[in-house]
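[step 3/7] inverse_fold.run input=structure_tokens len=269
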């Protein structure tokens, strides 16, 4: 990009950081299979030479690696090393994992753990049940806008009506652009019902025929930091079964929240 008179070195530096972070986020969501250069620059809405230049810089710092056979890009080893250094003393995933396993065993379906990250939710763990048809609606590391996905909706339902409306309105342009089936009014109705019941039930927008039930994990002040959801074929999640699974979710989350209550907020991650 050619520098114009209105662009200071500081603004250009900030832009470069934002672009590099955007590419790292895209790779995080698809790290299992990696991404090609064309996929990255199209999704990031960047020019091909710019994307290639940033990737080469990230490779030099070991933040990204490229498979020489497939030419696909993946997160590099330095990301793992930095993650270990940045890890909080109290790992939410470690606390929740045994409960995800128990819920997957009980339900025989797929259980997910999502955390809130600003205006998005991020899947940080997944456990599969024994039922032969798997509802793989999320890979670990995938980010989604708050307003889509049952885990994100569960977290939104625990917020005040004013706050969740603010988030939905902020995310709305991107939601309707990315998801043709997104319905603002229906989403609001799901959130209102979820706020009353303490859990959310919604059909998966991206995968027809799949339904999920989710419940927020909150801190002592009531603010949601995560959610556990169970996804299955729509036929397996009728109202009676949802009510049963809600009881199991409530029991697991009560134990998680009790453990969280013993930890300083700064230690939780």
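[step 3/7] decode complete -> sequence:
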């Amino acid at each position: 990009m050619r520098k114009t008179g209105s662009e200071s070195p500081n603004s250009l530096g900030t832009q470069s950081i934002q672009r590099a972070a955007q590419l790292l986020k895209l790779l995080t969501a698809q790290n299992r299979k990696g991404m090609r250069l064309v996929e990255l620059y199209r999704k990031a809405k960047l020019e091909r030479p710019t994307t290639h230049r940033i990737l080469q810089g990230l490779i030099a710092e070991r933040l990204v690696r490229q498979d020489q056979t497939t030419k696909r890009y993946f997160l590099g080893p330095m990301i793992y090393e930095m993650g270990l250094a940045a890890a909080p003393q109290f790992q939410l995933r470690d606390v929740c994992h045994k409960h995800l396993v128990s819920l997957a065993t009980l339900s025989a379906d797929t259980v997910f753990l999502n955390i809130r990250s600003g205006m998005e939710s991020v899947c940080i763990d997944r456990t599969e049940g024994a039922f032969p048809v798997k509802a793989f609606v999320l890979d670990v590391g995938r980010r989604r806008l708050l307003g889509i996905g049952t885990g994100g909706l569960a977290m939104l339902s625990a917020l005040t009506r004013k706050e969740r409306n603010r988030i939905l309105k902020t995310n709305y342009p991107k939601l309707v652009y990315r998801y043709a089936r997104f319905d603002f009014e229906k989403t609001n109705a799901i959130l209102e019902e979820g706020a009353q019941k303490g859990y959310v039930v919604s059909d998966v927008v991206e995968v027809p025929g799949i339904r999920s039930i989710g419940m927020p994990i909150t801190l002592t002040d009531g603010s949601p930091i995560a959610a556990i959801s169970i996804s299955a074929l729509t036929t397996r999640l009728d109202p009676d079964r949802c009510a049963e699974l809600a009881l199991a979710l409530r029991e697991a989350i009560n134990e998680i929240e009790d453990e969280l209550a013993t930890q300083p907020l700064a230690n939780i991650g």
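[step 4/7] annotate
Residues 1-5 have pLDDT under 50 and may be disordered.
The longest strand covers residues 224-233.
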